[in-house]
């Protein structure tokens, strides 16, 4: 590991062939680490699925209870609303007609979709013909 860390301190060579050799050494090291971590990441996904199956969201709620273990982790499950667009240009026209450009802002994509869904469900806007809403559950687990 120490030898690999020295790769970071090496000066970048002037010749392309030497640069490629250094790139390959560093890439090989990254691949070794990824291969080592892969089974651990797979196990985390497995545990996350089990946690998701054990958390429930009550009817009418959009979030499950929060479960915390001090010094360990906190988890909850939230009902999310997604949007599947079949014809993007028609959907953009729909947003323009209904003054709903907030949906397209990248920094608030999920909030915009949720707000659009709420406006349609409350009857303030017509449903778009070029898009379809879907709901899914998202589990969050954070180190504590």
Computed structural class: alpha+beta
Strand content: 15-25%
Instruction: Determine the number of helices (DSSP H or I, runs of at least 4 residues).
Output: 4
Strand segment tally:
3
Characterize the largest beta sheet: strand count, sense, and whether it forms a barrel.
3 strands, antiparallel
Radius of gyration: 24 Å
How confident overall, as mean pLDDT? 89
Q: Low-confidence spans: pLDDT under 50, at least 5 residues?
A: none
Instruction: Work out the count of structural domains.
Output: 2
- List SSEs in N-to-C order: HHEEHHE
Distance between termini?
Answer: 29 Å
Helix content: 40-55%
Which characteristics define this entry?
alpha+beta; flat; 144 residues; three-stranded antiparallel β-sheet
